[in-house]
Amino acid sequence: MIRFSLNCEQGHEFDAWFRSSDDYETQRKRGFVECPECGSSKVDKALMAPAVSTTRKKEKIALALGEAQRQAMAQLKTLTEKMRENADYVGDKFAEEARKIHFGEKEARGIYGEATPEEARGLVEDGVEFMPIPVFPDEHN
Predict the structure, then answer these.
(1) Does pTM surpass 0.90?
(2) What range does the domain containing 19 cover?
């Protein structure tokens, strides 16, 4: 599917989706593409910039959060930081260490680290209690 930005002869701007560019042309020539505002079938494609993913786009998404979401995100980030402060980082040995603690081979303590999806499934199958810790966008920089 392709989304086109369109203009009618009255200058109204709107978007429409088509299977292909040829599909748009066929529908336009047959008068099937109409302006939703005035009903005109004299419609042309507007000049469009390509959709490019940029850092600025990500910033716009972050800024689109409402105040309640920003507060919840800040609380979640604070909670995550507290969990990390009160636990030992075990890196990619997380599954191995969690299993040893679960089965009493090591003293119980809080740990955090990384696990592959397969390792996480194995922990669940073994009855090991754990939870993913959120990673926040600014933690990747």
Answers:
(1) no
(2) 2-45
* Closest residue by Cα to residue 124 from 97, 99, 105, 107: 99
107 in Cβ contact with 97 (< 8 Å): no
Pair (73, 34) in one structural domain: no
Query: 69 with 115, same domain?
Result: yes
89 secondary structure, DSSP code: E
Burial class of residue 24 (count of CB atoms within 10 Å of its CB; 0-12, 13-18, 19+): buried
Q: CA 40, 42, 43: angle at the middle one, nearest 5?
A: 100
Question: What pLDDT does 141 receive?
Answer: 40
Low-confidence residues in the chain, pLDDT < 50: 62, 140-141
Measured CA to CA, the distance from residue 45 to residue 57 in angstroms comes to 24
pLDDT for 66: 77
- Domain count for the chain, please give it: 2
CA distance 76 to 70: 10
Taking CA atoms, 79 is separated from 9, 65, 66, 74, 86, in Å, by 56, 20, 20, 9, 11
Compute, in degrees rounded to 10, the torsion defined by CA atoms 65, 69, 71, 77: -100
